[in-house]
Write a structure and sequence with these properties.
heterodimer, A: about 300 residues, Rossmann fold, Alpha-Beta Plaits, six-stranded mixed β-sheet, B: about 250 residues, about 0% strand, elongated, binds adenosine-5'-triphosphate, binds magnesium ion
Chain lengths: ~300, ~250
C-alpha cells in the first residue's frame, strides 16, 4: 500500500505551511520525511490523517482519503504526538480508550505494549513516563490495529541511543515485511542508517525525493581550510585564480572554510600568494548532513 | 458507534476528576438542602430570611434545592470535551475515529448517562436529608407525587446539563475559559435576570432547569411548567450540540 501526496497545500492564515507538495511513499521501504523545523512535516502528516483540512490538493493512503477508510486503525497506524496522552490514565488505559473506539480488544493493547517493550509500565500513569516512554507508547498506539502502513512524526525524539537503535531495527523489520513506513525527522543523521528513501522539504515545498543512495552520490569532495583569517580568505577565494573560481564556498565557522570545485593545489597557491596564515588544508568528503543543509537552505 | 461510546465511558471512568466532581456535587446538594431547610423561619433579629416551613414556597425550595449541583454537572460536561484539547488527546481520538460528529455524539450519550448517575447519587443522599429536615419540624405538606416529579426533573436536567457542558466545551475548547465563562453565565448573568427580569430569566437555560425542579423564585414569580421547561432545556442542548458538532468538524487539530 502506498501513500500519495498530490499537490498538497495548506495555509494557516498568512502562513504557507505546505506548498504544492507531491510525492509517493512506496511499500516495503522505510522513507525518511525530512526538513528543518517549521518546514511543514507535521502539517503534511496531519493533512494525510485527516486532522488538518488541506487548503487544496490531497493526500491518499492506498488511493483513499483517511476519512474514507472504514477502519483506519487497521490500515494506517499514525504516531504523531508523544505528548498526546491523558497524564492521569495508565499507559494501558490510554491505549484501551483507543482500542475501544477502534473495536479492538484488550489483547491488541497487550500485544502492542509488548512489541514496544512497555509492558513493564502498563499500569503506571503516563504522568510518570519519561519522554522516551511516551514515544514508545505513541508507537504502541500506532501498532494497535496491526496496520500495513506506519506514519510516525519524529519518533526518535527523546529516545536514548539504545532506543534509537531498537527503533531502527523495528522499522526496518516492519518494512521488510512489505509494510509502508514513513518517518519524519529534522535531522538527516538521525535516520540516515534507517531509511531507504528520502523526501526532503523546506518551507513547505518539495526539495528532493530520491533513494538514500542517490543522495549519498551527491556528496562531493571539497577542500577544508583552517585559518584565523577565514573572512579575508573567503573573499580572495571568491575572486579566484587565473579565471578559476570555486563552485561553492561555505564558511563553516570563524576558522573553517569549505571550498568546492577547486583543486587543493589552487587553494594552497592563493593562500601563499596572499600570505594567508594556514592551520590546516585537506581534502574531505561532504557530510550527508551538509547536503541536507544546503538543499534546505540551512547554510549560506 | 458502540465502540466509540464504550471508549467515552472508559475515558470518564479513568479520569479522577469524575470522582472529585461527583463528591463535590453531593456536598453542594447537602449544603443547599440543609441551608434552605434551616434558614426557613430563622430570624436573625432583622426579620425572617425565608418564611417558615409551614409556608408552601419554603418547603418547595428545600426540595428544588436537590438540583443545586447542576452547575457541577455542567462543569463535568465541559471537562469531558475540553480535556481532549488540554491534554492533546484529541489527536488520537480523531485518528481512531475521523468522523468527529460521531465522537461528539458518543460524548453526548456517555455524559448524558453520567449526568443521570450524578442525579441518582445526589438524590440518594439529598432526598432522605430533605425529607428528614422538613418532617422533623412543623411544615406544609406537599403531595408525594410533586416530590417524585422534582426528583425526575433533577434527573432529566442533570442529563441535559451534562450534554450542554460537552457542547459548550466543544465550542469554546479552552478548558479554563469554558468553565469560567459558564460559571459567570450561570451564577451572575442568569442569576441577575432571574432576580430582576424573571420574565426573561425563565426562558434561559437555568430558568428552564429550575422549572423542571419546580423551584419558586424568591418573589414568587413562576417559572414555566416543568414539561415545557424541560423541552426548552432540551432545545438549548440540541442547539448547542448542533453548532458544536458543526464547528468541531471544521477545526484543524494541530
Ligand atoms: N495550527 C497552526 N496555526 C498556524 N500556523 C501553524 C499551525 N500549525 C503549524 N503552523 C505553521 O506551519 C509551519 C509548519 O509547521 P509544522 O509543524 O508543519 O513544521 P514541522 O516541519 O513539523 O516542524 P518541526 O520540525 O519543528 O516539528 C510553521 O511555520 C508553523 O508555525
Ligand atoms: Mg513537527
Amino acid at each position: 500500500m502506498s501513500i500519495e501526496f498530490r499537490r498538497l497545500t495548506k495555509h494557516f492564515g498568512g502562513t504557507h505551511a505546505v506548498n504544492d507538495l507531491s510525492f509517493t511513499v512506496a511499500p516495503g521501504r522505510v522513507t525518511g520525511f525530512l526538513g528543518p523545523n517549521g518546514s511543514g512535516k507535521s502539517t503534511s502528516l496531519r493533512c494525510l490523517t485527516g486532522l488538518v483540512t488541506p487548503t487544496s490538493g490531497e493526500a491518499l493512503i492506498d488511493g483513499q482519503r483517511y476519512v474514507d477508510i472504514p477502519q483506519p486503525s487497521r490500515k494506517i497506524g499514525a504516531g504523531l504526538e508523544a505528548t498526546g496522552f491523558h497524564p492521569g490514565r495508565t499507559g494501558f488505559n490510554n491505549l484501551m480508550v483507543m482500542a475501544d473506539a477502534a473495536g479492538l480488544s484488550a489483547s491488541a493493547v497487550e500485544s502492542s505494549l509488548e512489541q514496544v517493550g512497555m509492558t513493564f509500565a502498563r499500569d503506571t500513569k503516563v504522568d510518570a513516563y519519561s519522554l522516551g516512554m511516551k514515544q514508545r507508547l505513541a508507537l504502541a498506539g500506532a501498532l494497535l490495529g496491526d496496520p500495513p502502513v506506519l506514519v510516525l512524526d519524529e519518533p526518535a525524539n527523546g529516545l536514548d541511543p539504545e532506543g534509537i537503535a531498537w527503533l531502527r531495527n523495528f522499522l526496518q523489520y516492519k518494512a521488510s515485511l512489505g509494510n509502508t513506513v514513513l518517518v519524519s525527522s529534522h535531522v538527516l543523521s538521525e535516520v540516515q542508517q534507517t531509511v531507504d528513501d528520502v523526501v526532503i522539504i523546506a518551507k513547505g515545498r518539495l526539495v528532493k525525493a530520491c533513494s538514500l543512495d542517490e543522495l549519498v552520490a551527491e556528496t562531493q569532495m571539497h577542500v577544508e581550510v583552517v585559518t584565523p583569517e577565514a573572512a579575508r580568505f573567503e573573499t580572495l577565494l571568491r575572486s579566484g585564480l587565473d579565471g578559476h573560481h570555486p563552485s561553492a564556498i561555505r564558511l563553516k565557522n570563524q576558522h573553517i572554510i569549505e571550498v568546492e570545485g577547486m583543486p587543493i593545489s589552487t587553494v594552497g597557491r592563493i593562500a601563499v600568494q596572499n600570505s594567508i596564515e594556514l592551520h590546516g588544508l585537506r581534502e574531505h568528503r561532504t557530510d550527508l548532513e551538509d547536503v541536507f543543509l544546503s538543499l534546505t537552505g540551512g547554510t549560506a | 458507534m458502540i465502540g466509540l461510546i464504550k471508549s467515552e465511558f472508559r475515558k470518564i471512568s479513568t479520569t479522577r476528576m469524575t470522582l472529585i466532581l461527583l463528591i463535590s456535587s453531593v456536598f453542594l446538594t447537602a449544603l443547599y438542602v440543609t441551608l434552605y431547610a434551616l434558614l426557613a423561619g430563622y430570624d436573625n433579629g432583622t426579620g425572617q430570611t425565608l418564611p417558615p416551613l409551614t409556608v408552601e414556597m419554603s418547603v418547595r425550595m428545600v426540595y428544588s434545592s436537590l438540583g443545586s449541583a447542576y452547575i457541577i454537572v455542567l462543569v463535568f460536561g465541559i471537562i469531558g470535551f475540553t480535556q481532549e484539547i488540554r491534554h492533546r488527546t484529541a489527536t488520537l481520538t480523531y485518528l481512531v475515529s475521523p468522523h468527529r460528529g460521531q465522537v461528539i455524539f458518543a460524548k453526548f450519550v456517555s455524559h448524558g448517562v453520567w449526568g443521570i448517575a450524578f442525579a441518582v447519587v445526589n438524590l440518594i443522599v439529598g432526598l432522605p436529608l430533605a425529607l428528614w429536615l422538613v418532617n422533623s419540624r412543623p411544615h406544609f405538606d406537599i403531595p408525594t407525587s410533586d416530590i417524585i416529579n422534582v426528583a425526575l426533573g433533577v434527573t432529566v436536567a442533570f442529563a441535559l446539563y451534562a450534554i450542554l457542558g460537552v457542547a459548550i466545551g466543544a465550542l469554546v475548547r479552552n478548558q479554563i475559559a469554558a468553565i469560567v465563562g459558564a460559571l459567570v453565565w450561570v451564577m451572575i448573568i442568569e442569576a441577575v435576570f432571574i432576580a430582576i427580569l424573571p420574565n426573561v430569566g425563565k426562558w434561559m437555560p437555568a430558568g428552564a432547569a429550575s422549572s423542571m425542579m419546580q423551584a419558586r423564585a424568591l418573589d414568587g414569580a413562576k417559572y414555566l411548567d416543568p414539561f415545557p421547561g424541560g423541552l426548552l432545556l432540551l432545545s438549548y442542548a440540541i442547539a448547542f450540540a448542533v453548532i458544536a458538532t458543526f464547528t468541531t468538524n471544521r477545526r484543524d487539530v494541530s
